[in-house]
Amino acid sequence: MNDSRRPGDRVVITGLGAVSGWGWDAAALWRGLSSGMTAVGTELRFSTEGQRTHVAAEAPEEPAGLADAFAGWSRLSRADRFAVSAAREALAQADLEVSGADTGLFFGTSTAGIAEGEEYFLRLLGRSPGSPRLQFLASHEMNGPGDAVARCFEVAGPVRSVSSACAAAALAVGDALHALRAGEVRRALAGGSDSLCLLTYSGFNSLRAVDEAPCRPFRADREGLNLGEGAGVLVLERLDDALGRGARPLAELLGAGASCDAHHMTAPHPEGEGAAQAMLAALADAGLAPDQVDFVNAHGTGTPLNDSAEAKALHTVFGDRARALPLTSTKGSVGHLLGSSGAIEAVVTALCLETAEVHPTPGGGEADPALGVDLVHGSARRLAHGAGRQLVAVSTSFAFGGSNAALVLGSWPGDGSS
């Protein structure tokens, strides 16, 4: 970390919230990831008849009490509800009031409430019970999840929605970091939310990018991804503000970087050039060298092309050290959460740093030897670090259209002590 930065320039994470196929809180997510199991299954809200595949990581039924906690809950889309629930959890952990103009909200999504728009037309065509409700049509707007969070918690500062496909939430977290450093806001909610819908499920099936079985990131027999749904939210504060109110930082957000492949609509650059550029930009933003990184939370979708390109990018950034740098992917456990994946992976990366433990990647044993990476599998791996050194992780998100994003996070206390 660049220690020349003033406390007001440093940004820490003081609250985390998540919804995933494992449940409606970050603790359930962490337990599921730590188990080495997968939440991918065949129990879905919609019919997959006629599709090539029939699996996804769907979130369970929402817990009791949420509908009573927020006015207008019934009018929120599923993606909105994920977002509000994750924000509520993160704010409770941070013990922070965010109403007012000095709080910003930066949120990513890929499909927002499209599932509700689909339901409107299914009812209109008589293919689903019930009468069509016009409010369903308003749910598809990409600013929906972020606006829902802003309304529920009275965030009156800048509210920005990002929809750069599967890099959206990571880009939103980076935007929040830069807004905090610039003094535009004093605190921020950053994250993303997406729900499963027929549009994406059918689209990925048409592209033949999904696996019929639980996916196997970085394995030699990988055949495709699994879709998932959920949300991740981080409470971000300037370090001096957090310490001044007696908050306990969970991790530090050190840097963010972005790039574009400018190569192909759906395929990554085969050499991972844009992915490497985003990681190097994030490390430069953090004032760190590649040899200071302790592990990587990979995009790791489980598709042959993506995992190969990402492995090449890792070798570009870390050189021969990529063969021994712990690597993990959440997508074997919770699927690909599309526009919200970068947020939930930032949450997971912070939890890995807080516990000094990297969760295993489900899907089998060691990585494809041709990739030359050190995939954590089977059981969690402890991160060894001595006093006086901060643990550092890189979390990556890559998207259709060639959008790439990378975040750099560090453990707290920042000196590596406990």
In words, what does this structure look like?
The protein has an eleven-stranded mixed β-sheet, with helices on both faces. It has two domains: 12-244, Peroxisomal Thiolase, Chain A, domain 1; 255-411, Thiolase/Chalcone synthase (Peroxisomal Thiolase, Chain A, domain 1, 3-Layer(aba) Sandwich). The chain has 418 residues and is of the alpha/beta class. It contains 13 helices and 13 strands. 32% of the residues lie in helices and 18% in strands.
What is the CATH level 1 assignment of the largest domain? Alpha Beta
- Briefly note the structural class of the backbone: alpha/beta
Largest sheet, order of strands side by side? 3-2-4-5-1-6-13-12-7-8-10
Shape designation:
globular
Q: What's the mean pLDDT score?
A: 93
> What is the ordering of alpha helices and beta strands?
EHHHEHHHEHEHEHEHEHEHHEEEEE
Question: What share of the residues does DSSP label as strand, in percent?
Answer: 15-25%
**Helix percentage range:** 25-40%
- Compute the number of strand runs: 13
Poorly predicted segments: none
CATH superfamily of the largest domain: Thiolase/Chalcone synthase
- Separation of termini? 18 Å
Any idea of the CATH topology of the largest domain?
A: Peroxisomal Thiolase, Chain A, domain 1
So how many helices? 13
Quick overview:
By secondary structure, the protein is an alpha/beta fold. The chain has helices at residues 26-35, 66-69, 78-94, 114-124, 134-138, 144-153, 168-181, 198-206, 239-244, 273-286, 304-318, 331-334, 341-355, and strands spanning 11-19, 103-108, 159-162, 187-194, 230-238, 251-260, 295-297, 326-328, 357-358, 374-375, 381-382, 392-398, 403-411. The chain has two domains: 12-244, Thiolase/Chalcone synthase (Peroxisomal Thiolase, Chain A, domain 1, 3-Layer(aba) Sandwich); 255-411, Thiolase/Chalcone synthase (Peroxisomal Thiolase, Chain A, domain 1, 3-Layer(aba) Sandwich), CATH 3.40.47.10.
